[in-house]
C-alpha cells in the first residue's frame, strides 16, 4: 500500500497561535523589526492631520507637517510618558499638546512649549522632542519601522512584490499610489494573524467557502491559489464582465494595465501584514494590525481610479465581492483559532500539496523568532 505521507508537510504546532509569550516574541522580532504598513497617506490629507496605529507593542503617531510631509513618532510624551494622542485619528492646527501637563510639540516632533518652560532652564527643548520612527511612503501608504537599524525597504518589501508578480514593473501598472479610496471596511477578527496569512495564501478552501469568488475565477475551484505560482493571475470566467459579486461590468481598465493583465486577478502577501489584490479596474489592500495572539484588526481598502470615485459611481458591486470573501475567510479563521489550543493540535496539522508554499511562510516566521547565533 502506498501512502501520501511524503506529499504532506507539517504546520506550526498549536501553541504558536495561542501562546502570549510567542506573540510577544513576534511583536518584538517581526512587527517591531520589519517595515509595517501603517496608514494610507491620503488619509492624512492636510497639515495637522494625524493617525495613531498599534505597531507591535508601541503606539505610533503619524502626522502631516506644515510642509506637507509625513512624520512618525512614538506616541509617548517625553515629560512623564502620557499617551500624547489618545484618538485613532484627528486634526490639530499646528501643534500636538499632551493632555496631562500640556507639553507642546510641533508637527515635526520638536518640543516648543511647556508651562513654566522659561523658568526651567534644564528642560532643553532640543533634547526633549518626540522619539522619531522611520517612515517610508510606497503604493500610497506610509510604512514605518521601529528597528534601530531598519532593514532595506527595497530588499524586504519591494523585491518580494516583484518576485511574486514576476517582474519589477508589474505593480507599477496599477498606479496604486494615485488611486482613490472608494470604500474601507474594518474587520475585528478573533484569530491569530498567522491564520489569516495562511488562509489568504491558499485556495484549497475556495470551492468550499467562496461560491461568489469561484464563479468569477473558475480556476480557484481547483484549489490552487494565485500565490502558489509566480507571476500567475487566474483568468475571469468567460461570462464574467468584471470582478463583481454578480459578474456584472466593473469600470474602465486602469490606464497602465497591459493586455496581458486584463481580465485577470493577481494576489500577493507582503510580509508580515499586507495583502494586495489586483484586478484591471481596482485594487484591494488589506492591512493587518495584530493586537493579541487571538485578535487581529484588518483594514481593507478598495481603491479605484480617481475619476470613478469623484463621479460618485456605485462601487458596491465590486466591494461586495471581496467583502463577502473577507467575511467567509475571517469566519473560517475564527473557527480555527479555538482549536489551536486543543490537545488534538498540539503537534499541528498538515499542509497538502496545494498549500505547500505556506511552509515557506512558516519557515520565515520561525527564522525571525530564532535567537541570533
Ligand atoms: S506627561 Fe505629557 S506633559 Fe506631562
Ligand atoms: Fe479565502
UniProtKB/TrEMBL annotation:
It comes from the Bacteria. The keyword Cytoplasm does not apply. Pfam families: Rieske (PF00355), Ring_hydroxyl_A (PF00848). SUPFAM superfamilies: Bet v1-like, ISP domain. Residues 35-144 form the Rieske domain. Keywords: 2Fe-2S, Iron, Iron-sulfur, Metal-binding, Oxidoreductase. One of its GO terms (molecular function) is 2 iron, 2 sulfur cluster binding. The keyword Cell inner membrane does not apply. Its cofactor is Fe cation. InterPro entries: Rieske_2Fe-2S, Rieske_2Fe-2S_sf, Ring_hydroxy_dOase_asu_C_dom, Rng_hydr_dOase-A. This is Rieske 2Fe-2S family protein. It comes from Streptomyces qinglanensis.
Amino acid at each position: 500500500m502506498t501512502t501520501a505521507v511524503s506529499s504532506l508537510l507539517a504546520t506550526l504546532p498549536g501553541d504558536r497561535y495561542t501562546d502570549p509569550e510567542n506573540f510577544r516574541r513576534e511583536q518584538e522580532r517581526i512587527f517591531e523589526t520589519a517595515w509595517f504598513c501603517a496608514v494610507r497617506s491620503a488619509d492624512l490629507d492636510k497639515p495637522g492631520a494625524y493617525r495613531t496605529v498599534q505597531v507591535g507593542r508601541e503606539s505610533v503617531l503619524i502626522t502631516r507637517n506644515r510642509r506637507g510631509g509625513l512624520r512618525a513618532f512614538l506616541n509617548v510624551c517625553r515629560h512623564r510618558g502620557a499617551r500624547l494622542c489618545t484618538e485613532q485619528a484627528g486634526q490639530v492646527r499646528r501643534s500636538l499638546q499632551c493632555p496631562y501637563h500640556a507639553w507642546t510639540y510641533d508637527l515635526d516632533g520638536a518640543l516648543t512649549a511647556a508651562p513654566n518652560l522659561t523658568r526651567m532652564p534644564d528642560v532643553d527643548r532640543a533634547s526633549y522632542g518626540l522619539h522619531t520612527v522611520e517612515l517610508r511612503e510606497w503604493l500610497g501608504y506610509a510604512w514605518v519601522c521601529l528597528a534601530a537599524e531598519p532593514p532595506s525597504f527595497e530588499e524586504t518589501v519591494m523585491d518580494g512584490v516583484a518576485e511574486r508578480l514576476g517582474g519589477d514593473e508589474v505593480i507599477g501598472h496599477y498606479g496604486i499610489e494615485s488611486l482613490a479610496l472608494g470604500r474601507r471596511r474594518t474587520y475585528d477578527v478573533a484569530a491569530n494573524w498567522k491564520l489569516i496569512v495562511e488562509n489568504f495564501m491558499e485556495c484549497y478552501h475556495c470551492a468550499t467557502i467562496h461560491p461568489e469568488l469561484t464563479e468569477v475565477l473558475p480556476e480557484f475551484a481547483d484549489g490552487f491559489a494565485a500565490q502558489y505560482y509566480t507571476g500567475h493571475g487566474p483568468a475571469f470566467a468567460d461570462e464574467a464582465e468584471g470582478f463583481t459579486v454578480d459578474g456584472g461590468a466593473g469600470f474602465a481598465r486602469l490606464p497602465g494595465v497591459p493586455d496581458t493583465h486584463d481580465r485577470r486577478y493577481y494576489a500577493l502577501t507582503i510580509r508580515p501584514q499586507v495583502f494586495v489584490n489586483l484586478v484591471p479596474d481596482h485594487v484591494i489592500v488589506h492591512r493587518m494590525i495584530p493586537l493579541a495572539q487571538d485578535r487581529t484588526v484588518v483594514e481593507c481598502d478598495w481603491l479605484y481610479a480617481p475619476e470613478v470615485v469623484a463621479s460618485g459611481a456605485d462601487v458596491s458591486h465590486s466591494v461586495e465581492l471581496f467583502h463577502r470573501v473577507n467575511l467567509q475567510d475571517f469566519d473560517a479563521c475564527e473557527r480555527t483559532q479555538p482549536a489551536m489550543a486543543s490537545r488534538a493540535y498540539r503537534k499541528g496539522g498538515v499542509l497538502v500539496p496545494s498549500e505547500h508554499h505556506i511552509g515557506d511562510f512558516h519557515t520565515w516566521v520561525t527564522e525571525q523568532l530564532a535567537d541570533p547565533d
